[in-house]
Amino acid sequence: MGNETKKDIMFKKMKNKKKEVKLVRKIVLIITFLIIIVGGIGGLVVYNFVESALLPLDPNSEETITVDIPIGSGLDTISSELEESGVIKNAKIFKYYAKFNNESQFQAGEYSLTKAMTLDEIIESLKTGKVYREPILSLTIPEGLTLEQIGQVVEKNTNHSADDFFALVTSEEFVDRMMIKYPNILGAEIKGENVRYALEGYLFPATYPFFEENPSIETIVDTMLANTDKVVTSYVDLLQAEEKSVHWLLTFASLLEEEATAQTDRATIASVFYNRIEEGMPLQTDPTVLYAKGTHKDRVLFEDLEFDNPYNTYQNTGLPPGPIANAGKSSIEATLDPSDTDYFYFLADKEGTNHFSVTYDEHLQKIDEFLK
Fold first, then answer.
1. Residue among 246, 208, 241, 250 nearest 227 (CA)
2. Buried b / exposed e across 239-273, counting CB within 10 Å, b at 16+?
């Protein structure tokens, strides 16, 4: 080593330096490559997250989610409320999307939204104050229908048969599952010894929007039960105060639904039923006879009144074992808030107008006047 010249030493240092430079460059290239890969993956992850947040959470969902937007809510509050309610995936993405599209002037209120709605549909709903979405199928269930009649409506408007519908709603396994899901409305009384069908009267009458071409029968029934749960829950406190059950409420209301020929008569007919129950008199309402016999006709004959069945209110006092049809909100409210009268009798004339009487003699006079 002592024989090395300064030139050799300098050459050796330069050689080592070149090696170091090459090694540094190699390390930098590797690190840069890794950064690009990681950045690309990160960018892809971010891109996929944003894209998914811009799409409906569940395009096939039929579940209705109630979202309450308080007065004075800003975009931050609205976005957070939508995320917390499970309608959108990410509040920040929704907020930036709305800002990017210059959307504002959202209205306060209670909205029934679904996970299947796009951000544009949600925004349009919040701007107009109503749910902005065109359903693929609208199923209208009128007041006063039985399970069998509802099945016919389903058959007419979907690819499902009335028999398949009826098989599901009378299935013990299905009823048990629904009792677990909706304990506020489906109590043990629906399985009473003399109850004909557990879910009779529990499928709330309304127009139901569906956003898939052919929803399953279970989806249809579940949607109706959810609506019943929503409507009836608002009366639970009042029922508890009166020591009454949901089953009692829907049974009583179903009689009003079948008897009333005019909106204003429901509360008055309710008063007649209350007065009769208080006096221990049979309700003697013809629709219960027809339900007991499982027939539908315009006129009940005297021989029909003698039909021995728990639902026949000519043969039994008090309410029948369960609802005889699905009652609307007007009948439910009339049940809970009847008129204050002394009436014990009523009849409907040939035009459908109801006439009320306090005494039986007065009732007979009105029969002669309006029906003979």
1. 208
2. eeeeeebbbbbbbbbbbbbbbbeeeebbbbbbbbb
**pLDDT tens across the length of the chain (372 residues):** 445 554 454 445 455 545 554 554 555 566 556 555 655 555 555 556 566 667 887 877 777 888 888 877 888 889 899 999 898 888 888 888 888 888 878 888 888 888 888 888 888 888 877 665 677 888 999 999 999 999 999 999 999 999 999 999 999 999 999 999 999 999 999 999 999 999 999 999 999 988 788 899 999 999 999 999 999 988 988 998 989 999 999 999 999 999 887 666 899 999 999 999 999 999 999 999 999 988 776 677 677 787 889 999 999 999 999 999 999 999 999 999 999 999 999 988 888 888 999 999 999 999 999 887
For β-strands 207-210 and 345-348, DSSP reports them as unpaired
